[in-house]
Amino acid sequence: MLICLAGTGVGYAHWSQTVTIEGTITTGEWDCGGTIGFWKNWDSHNTYTEDEIEGWLQIIDGNSTWLGPTNTTDMVTMLEQASGKNKTSQFLAHYLATRLNMETEPLPRLNPDNEHDITTIKGYKYLGLANPSSANLSEIVQAIEDKHVPPATEPPKDKQFEIMKNICDALNNLET
Questions:
Q1: What CA–CA distance (Å, rounded) separates 79 from 143?
Q2: Tens-digit pLDDT profile for the chain (176 aa)?
Q3: Residue 79 lies in a domain
Q4: Is beta strand 135-136 parallel, antiparallel or unpaired with respect to 115-116?
Q5: Whole domain around residue 156: which residue ranges?
Q6: For residue 3, is it within any domain?
Q7: Domains in the chain, number
Q8: Among 9, 15, 46, 112, which has the highest number of CB atoms less than 10 A from its own CB?
């Protein structure tokens, strides 16, 4: 019994020693490509030119009922509103990032033909997709566009804007 107790003491002493690790850690700001932060800070990256982005914004403006910024200043203003309390503005900012991710060249950050499973996002049924577990991005975007209503009818409610924002945010955070 005494030998066991001594062995336990030696084992405890061995595991309770202090270990010191020395080294250098370098930190910095990280904008994941394709996120709101990435697009809001487009001019701090050497990824895309202002002319490229404004060309994509014009394409988006031409085929979206939700969006309309046609220059980088308007784009940044819209993206900055993602952190506000207005659910419509939050959605529009995330949706703009999604649409920009679909336009990038030579390869889109988000390929319109790629399939995505959005069933893990609370409220996904709101979009009314036939197969939400394998909808391609073009189908998701079309379902979002279909939620835009004429001025004479009732627009989506905050909860519905939140659902669309969450779907776009999940897509924007995919690694490409």
A1: 22
A2: 667 666 666 555 555 554 444 443 433 334 457 899 999 999 998 899 999 999 999 999 999 999 987 899 999 999 999 999 999 999 999 999 999 999 998 889 999 999 999 999 999 999 999 999 999 999 999 999 999 988 778 899 999 999 999 999 999 998 65
A3: yes
A4: antiparallel
A5: 32-172
A6: no
A7: 1
A8: 112
In a domain, 15, yes or no: no
Residue 74 falls within a domain, yes or no? yes
